[in-house]
């Protein structure tokens, strides 16, 4: 677990698009911060800079007391959950979840213990030997989350993880994500364009527009304003 600090972060893409224009946000240890705003306002770019998938043009991103601007994604102690699941189709659910731990040379019995624990928390134990294509959208999204929680990272990053699910499943997964984050207490940043999702999930809501922060507060504070 860790505090995440963004200080005057900017992103100018090659070609000159200024996607993020000086954003500063503090997320407390164990906090759930949602970045909400219309398509193109810079949410994904900001998240990808925290993840290390995009270079930072200026400013600072810190995880705990460590500035991570020039640190490789694999060294950042973060786990990211994507909209399109990003599962390996040829691997079983078990191997998908275990993949990151195997890469880190975690001992085999420790891997097994953690995969089984994640599968139990996410209720995907019956599917561990299946391939992703034999799962529903909701089950696949659970596997993607399993892959994130098994690493026991300091920070979770979510990029519109529920956008591809139908409305009923979105509501159900919203509740599950919140429960999971409360249980694990991992500092989280969650990107969405859905205001209901933003309101139900966040303790800290950041409303973005045109690459800048427009409002910050608890969901009640933000949505109560005229
Ligand atoms: P959001 O996640 O809020 O939809 P993005 O961060 O994806 O917003 O995009 C912010 C702006 O940056 C948009 O104008 C988008 O077209 C632009 N952009 C995003 N990725 C790139 C890229 N790789 N190269 C150039 N421009 C980009
Ligand atoms: P999202 O809405 O989730 O941000 P997009 O469909 O806008 O996704 O972008 C998908 C991919 O295309 C991302 O990797 C993004 O960085 C890239 N991208 C978006 N806008 C541009 C752009 N104007 N030029 C180059 N790449 C872009």
Distance linking N and C termini: 35 Å
Report the mean per-residue pLDDT as an integer: 92
Q: What multimeric state do the chains show? A: single chain
Helix content: 25-40%
Sheet having the most strands: 6 strands, mixed
Small-molecule components bound: adenosine-5'-diphosphate
The strand count comes to 10
Element layout with pairings:
Elements: E1 4-12, E2 18-27, E3 32-36, H1 43-51, E4 58-63, E5 66-67, E6 78-82, H2 93-103, H3 108-122, H4 137-149, E7 155-159, H5 167-184, E8 187-192, H6 195-201, E9 204-209, E10 212-217, H7 219-224
Parallel strand pairs: 3-8, 3-9, 6-7, 7-8
Antiparallel strand pairs: 1-2, 1-4, 4-5, 9-10
Helix pairs in contact: 2-3, 2-4, 3-4
The structure holds adenosine-5'-diphosphate (ADP) (2 copies).
One adenosine-5'-diphosphate (ADP) binds next to helix 1.
GO molecular function: ABC-type transporter activity; ATP binding; ATP hydrolysis activity
Main location: membrane
Protein name: Sn-glycerol-3-phosphate import ATP-binding protein UgpC
Key words describing this protein structure:
single chain, 226 residues, alpha/beta, six-stranded mixed sheet, four-stranded antiparallel sheet, 10 strands, globular, binds adenosine-5'-diphosphate
Write a short abstract of this structure:
This protein has 226 residues and is an alpha/beta fold. It has helices at 43-51, 93-103, 108-122, 137-149, 167-184, 195-201, 219-224, and strands at 4-12, 18-27, 32-36, 58-63, 66-67, 78-82, 155-159, 187-192, 204-209, 212-217.
């Amino acid at each position: 677990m860790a505090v995440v600090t963004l200080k005057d972060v900017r992103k100018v893409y090659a070609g000159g698009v200024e996607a993020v224009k000086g954003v500063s946000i503090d997320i407390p240890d164990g906090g759930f911060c949602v970045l909400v705003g219309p398509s193109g306002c810079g949410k994904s770019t900001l998240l990808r800079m925290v993840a290390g998938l995009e270079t930072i043009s200026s400013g600072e991103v810190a995880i705990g007391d460590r500035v991570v601007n020039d640190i490789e994604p694999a060294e950042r102690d973060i786990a990211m959950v994507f909209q399109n699941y990003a599962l390996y189709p040829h691997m079983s659910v078990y191997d998908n979840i275990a993949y990151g731990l195997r890469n880190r040379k975690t001992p085999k019995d420790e891997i097994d213990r953690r995969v089984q624990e994640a599968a139990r928390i996410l209720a995907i134990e019956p599917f561990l030997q299946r391939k992703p294509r034999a799962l529903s959208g909701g089950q696949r999204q659970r596997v993607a989350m399993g892959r994130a929680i098994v690493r026991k990272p300091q920070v979770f990053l979510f990029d519109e993880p529920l956008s591809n699910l139908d409305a009923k499943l979105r509501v159900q997964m919203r509740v599950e994500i919140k429960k999971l984050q409360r249980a694990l207490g991992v500092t989280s940043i969650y990107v969405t364009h859905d205001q209901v999702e933003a309101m139900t999930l966040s303790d800290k809501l950041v409303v973005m527009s045109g690459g800048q922060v427009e409002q910050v507060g608890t969901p009640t504070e933000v949505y109560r304003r005229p």
